TrEMBL record, chains A, B:
This is DUF917 family protein. Pfam families: S-Me-THD_C, S-Me-THD_N. It comes from Kibdelosporangium banguiense. The lineage of its organism: Bacteria, Bacillati, Actinomycetota, Actinomycetes, Pseudonocardiales. InterPro entries: Oxoprolinase-like (IPR045079), S-Me-THD-like_C (IPR048350), S-Me-THD_C_sf (IPR024071), S-Me-THD_N (IPR010318), S-Me-THD_N_sf (IPR027479). Residues 167-350 form the S-Me-THD-like C-terminal domain.
Length: 355, 355
């Protein structure tokens, strides 16, 4: 992938929303901003990790907040560039590349818009290989890279710079500020230099998102094609019978219940989420857990179903998709395994399901 | 007053705790820090507002939080200098003077410790002429001076820099961060240049605090002497019969009830506070309200009684003391009158009581 063209944005947003496991925010508004920016400024150059110079200054730009709020409280479009410029002032150096912090929903397209507006190239990767709800849940934490300085910008023009002693504190303070700002802010943080990208990013996820989004749009059997592309397992197809959702502590938290249809008649699934889907239990047994991906798709169209968009009656397919292998190391699981989210359960590899 | 000597710190802390109207935090730990710093580095030079050069860079250093927490969660002593240095980096210039943001409790002595440690002189004044619970409730807000850049430092070494579009936003975000940090942080903010001091500060309040503290310590009738010095009115002497206090939203909020003794037998008073005492009602009628000062003293010793230290059975005298006249202008009342704290009451000048 050499560049993001106007026609790519929609596919990237769709694919990233699937990889975002229900979180990362509804990409719709972000997609419009990115499309407008690419239309105005032209295609965004994309660089492979292997081609980024070792001294490059690579800045992730993302939004933080509860997706339930993001659908109603719209970004102004200026925040990303404001955050980037403020971070550059704090660092005393200019960014050379931008990159998504996660390949999920709105956070896959915000960097496209920012790259188009600033003329900076985008690195083909992200810091999670999926979406996670908390700022410190990134591969850079595993290699000792600080999330701070972190710049936070809200829609009113308020700006905050955090400098914390751990990445967990960065998450805590950023979340407090985000909540006070109405659960929706844009951040620039977790700066990587070029030689850290191999260990600090998952390679090629922007390309993967585009390919996935295109596959779902064009395939005759979108769900099966998506599963094949992602090496995922189909855990159930069914009907959403209940969604219990609350926006608390700056997150959209809750559970959804699914009753199987077709070959899955009589099977019940419970999904637990905190912005992202984190646990999938089938008939009371955990069959996929964070950090592996739990992707919920519309059973007909393969379109991603977000945790905030899930409704009673949705016909969905749930895929279990293996995460980047660095997440299932002991250090990775300490940061993003089920217990990191308060679930009293160890990580279990994807169990059962069909290829 | 030319300097703060070791022997002055205790009097300043006592006097400021009285002027702090029950808030500003228990000065005990701050006093020990200030005494240790003055003992180590020598007396702190004090400069009158009239003698500060017009281009001076005057930095208020203070703590923020709930006094109920401040009595248990102790500052490390490093936070003030850390905050000052971080603010200087953001401003791109060095501070020439320090000043208390409020003349209340711990915030009157933290700047003494910081001045001793940095060798900077202290300006004889403060930005309120009392204590108020919220960061934007300062005279600089009335003259259009921004509270930001505001540096916030916690006891773990986490640092945050706020840059907000209004001073109210600075308060909101700082309070959110403060609450997340455990309700106790140190801030450097609301920088004034020398020529703004006349309008942005209340003149001579450090000297006043020392004089008041000394008067209470030495006088035969401490309460009457304090009242005379402050041009205050005695509203009641009585016994605390009930204190209803909760630490919510980063503040110590509540009410206290007092039953009159001696000449005030049969009279009842209710005090409402949010860190500071804000409303005094005598037999159901408001007799003193913010921004005027409601000072609660031990009826025997004249020692200040803080809102977090007030207990059932305390014998107290309550004084109503006129505030700086800039607070009773329409703009001043909008910022610090009873309605600014959610009380459904207009400002009433001090009513009744005895000189």
């Amino acid at each position: 992938m050499r560049e993001v063209r106007l026609s790519d944005v929609d596919d990237i947003a769709r694919g990233a929303a699937i990889l975002g496991t229900g979180g990362g925010g509804d990409p719709y508004v972000g997609k419009l901003l990115a499309e407008a920016a690419v239309e105005k400024h032209g295609p965004v150059p994309v660089v492979n990790i292997a081609d980024v110079p070792p001294d490059a200054v690579v800045v992730p730009i993302s939004s933080m907040g509860a997706p339930t709020v993001g659908t109603e409280k719209l970004p102004s479009g200026r925040e990303a560039v404001t955050a980037l410029r403020a971070l550059e002032r704090v660092m005393g150096t200019r960014a050379t590349h931008l990159v998504p912090i996660e390949i999920g929903g709105v956070n896959s397209v915000i960097p496209i818009a920012a790259a188009a507006e600033t003329g900076l190239p985008l690195v083909d990767g992200d810091a999670m290989g999926r979406a996670f709800p908390e700022a410190h849940m990134v591969l850079p934490t595993l290699i000792g890279v600080s999330c701070t300085p972190m710049v936070i910008v809200d829609d009113k023009g308020n700006t905050m710079v955090l400098d914390t002693v751990t990445n967990q504190y960065a998450e805590r303070f950023a979340r407090a500020v985000c909540t006070e700002a109405g659960c929706s802010v844009v951040t620039a943080d977790t700066v990587l230099i070029g030689k850290q990208l191999r260990d600090g990013l998952v390679d090629g996820t922007l390309s993967l998102a585009r390919k996935l989004g295109r596959t779902v749009r064009l395939a005759d059997e979108p769900v099966a094609s998506a599963a094949a592309l992602l090496d995922g397992r189909l855990l159930i197809t069914g009907k959403v019978t209940d969604v219990d959702r609350a926006t608390t502590g700056g997150f959209a938290r809750g559970q959804a219940r699914i009753e199987g249809i077709g070959a899955y008649r009589g099977v019940r699934m419970r999904l637990s989420f905190q912005n992202e889907h984190l646990l999938a239990e089938r008939d009371g047994e955990v069959v996929t857990s964070t950090p592996d991906l739990i992707c919920v798709l519309d059973n007909e169209t393969g379109e991603p179903v977000t945790t905030e968009g899930m409704r009673y009656g949705n016909r969905v397919a749930v895929l279990g998709v293996p995460c980047d292998s660095r997440w299932t190391t002991p250090e990775g699981l300490r940061l993003t395994g089920p217990r990191a989210f308060g679930y009293d359960h160890d990580y279990v590899p994807i169990t059962g399901g069909t290829k």
